[in-house]
TrEMBL record:
Record keywords: Glycosyltransferase, Transferase
Identification of the protein by name: UDP-glucuronosyltransferase
GO cellular component, one term: membrane
Family: Belongs to the UDP-glycosyltransferase family.
Organism annotation: Homarus americanus (American lobster)
High-level lineage: Eukaryota, Metazoa, Ecdysozoa, Arthropoda, Crustacea
Length: 310
């Protein structure tokens, strides 16, 4: 700790700041600075609330009404889903974290800063947690004053689209437009060629026009498909003639979909996306498909049902 306090570069960097904010994923090293320099620590959770960390702050949330953010609860088999969720939370979240992950990190930090308090004590000094949730889009949960929901704050009414994009969407007529994006982390160009071809075959058979966020070059693109490396997503979703959103179901995309009242076809990839997709499906927002089951007919059937019934 003295080494950290005595670092001229660190002191110079921090002297103008009165608060330290860090993403939950990287909170362990970030907790040291606010303790040493006696400033508040704010943690930002980019996913759902973490039941374990909520308990650290004094708010115990039972897994019977709060699924783990990384766990795909099978709502059609509720008792099995609850059991697996409790195993995930107790077995992984608590035991693995407290007995494996934290001790390994603690060993490294204690070697450098022997007079620093234990990490499990430091995290209790968290002043505020900002949660990427919104009770009207998720579950209403009992939260402490130090747990504040900020989810969907980025959602806003649509702005005017670039003229070429506006003309393309309006030119679709009453059939409308389908918007397809896998988010900012996963590039559509990284999809295996077989999946790219499946989607092209699907789009070729649709009466709708399609806007596909695709970050590379694509051959044999049908006339009803527009390819773009970047798109103003909220402005596209806000357009009245956009009928369906094919999405990876990241939390921000899900919030924007709900805000702009568009049905969706979820194709979750990893992290919290499978859970988000299940929640969207069970809430009647659209359909969710697994990548291993994708065929031209499966996607066409799902889109047809969404366009006609959702």
């Amino acid at each position: 700790m003295n080494k950290l306090k005595g670092s001229s570069k660190t002191a110079e960097f921090l002297k103008e700041y009165e608060i330290v904010m860090a993403r939950k994923l990287y909170k362990v090293p970030s907790m040291i600075y606010p303790f040493v320099h006696e400033v508040p620590f704010i943690m930002v959770s980019t996913r759902d609330i973490d039941p374990l960390f909520s308990a650290v702050l004094g708010n115990f949330l039972h897994p019977i009404y709060l699924a783990n953010a990384m766990f795909e609860r099978h709502f059609l088999i509720p008792s099995w889903g609850l059991l697996m969720d409790m195993i995930a939370q107790v077995g992984y979240s608590y035991m693995h974290r407290n007995w494996v992950t934290v001790p390994a990190i603690q060993k490294e930090i204690s070697a450098q800063f022997p007079d620093l308090p234990p990490l499990l004590d430091l995290e209790k000094n968290t002043s505020l947690v900002l949660l990427n949730t919104q009770f009207s889009m998720d579950k209403a949960l009992p939260l402490l004053p130090s747990q504040v929901e900020v989810g969907a704050m980025h959602c806003r009414p649509g702005k005017p689209l670039p003229q070429d994009l506006e003309s393309w969407i309006n030119g679709a007529g009453s059939a409308g437009v389908i918007y397809f994006s896998l988010g900012s982390v996963m590039d559509s160009k990284s999809l295996p060629l077989e999946y790219q071809q499946i989607f092209l075959q699907v789009f070729r058979r649709l009466p709708q026009r399609v806007i596909w966020k695709f970050e590379g070059e694509l051959k044999d693109v049908p006339d009803n498909v527009m390819i773009s490396k970047w798109l103003p997503q909220q402005d596209v979703l806000a357009h009245d003639n956009v009928k369906v959103f094919i999405t990876h179901c990241g939390l921000l995309s899900l919030q924007e979909t709900i805000y702009h009242a568009k049905p969706l076809l979820a194709l979750p990839l990893f992290s919290d996306q499978p859970k988000n997709a299940l929640r969207a499906r069970d809430s009647g927002l659209g359909h969710s498909l697994q990548w291993e089951e994708l065929t031209t007919e499966v996607i066409l059937d799902a889109l047809t049902d969404i366009l006609n019934n959702v």
